[in-house]
Structure formats: structure tokens, C-alpha cells
Amino acid sequence: QLVESGGGLVQAGGSLRLTCAASGVTGGAAAMGWFRRAPGKEREFVAYINLTGTRKSYSDSVRGRFTVSRDRFKNMLFLQMDSLNPEDTAVYYCSVKYGNNWTFYGQGTLVTVST
Fold first, then answer.
1. What CA–CA distance (Å, rounded) separates 7 from 99?
2. 56-69 pLDDT, tens per residue?
């Protein structure tokens, strides 16, 4: 399973750090990542990191503000979010990539950015 935490209410310009604790789902995985679903919108990709931590990728909307990282030994995934703006308000989901497919196990964590 994947358990996301760290969401909350923050003012524009602030920071939050999301955490995803993974158990029993990373065997055979190629990467882990973060997605988000804003109110009334489709789920969108945010960032990913391969399991060796040697490759990272970000969406254009968060590049330069968000940083994805992973603790291989604790099997945890992180998303450091800086310079948050109201457009970042969404439920954030952790995901595991098997081959070319992303699988979602968690319930997500809500991030709300106020003006």
C-alpha cells in the first residue's frame, strides 16, 4: 500500500513537504511518482523518480519549485513543494510505475494554498 501524508493549508508562497510510505508494492517497480487532482480537473502528473534515484522528471507547472526524492532504505517518497500558489491546490497522490503503467494505491493528501 501507499500512504500519503503532509498535506494541509498553506499561504501562497509557502512550503509543504509530502511523504509517501510504501509497503509491499515496490517490488518490480520502475519508478515512483506524484500526481495531483485539482477540483474539477483530471488527475495530472507532477513528478517522478526512478528507483535508483538517478533520474527525475517534473511537469512544466512545478519544475523549479518542487523537488522529488526517495529514501530507498525506508521505502519512502517525498515531495518538497516551495513557492506554492493557489493553482497547486489539489489532492496529491503517490504512485508506483510498473513497466509503462502507473498504479495508484493511496487515498491522497489534500493541499490547499490560500491567497
1. 29
2. 999 999 999 999 99
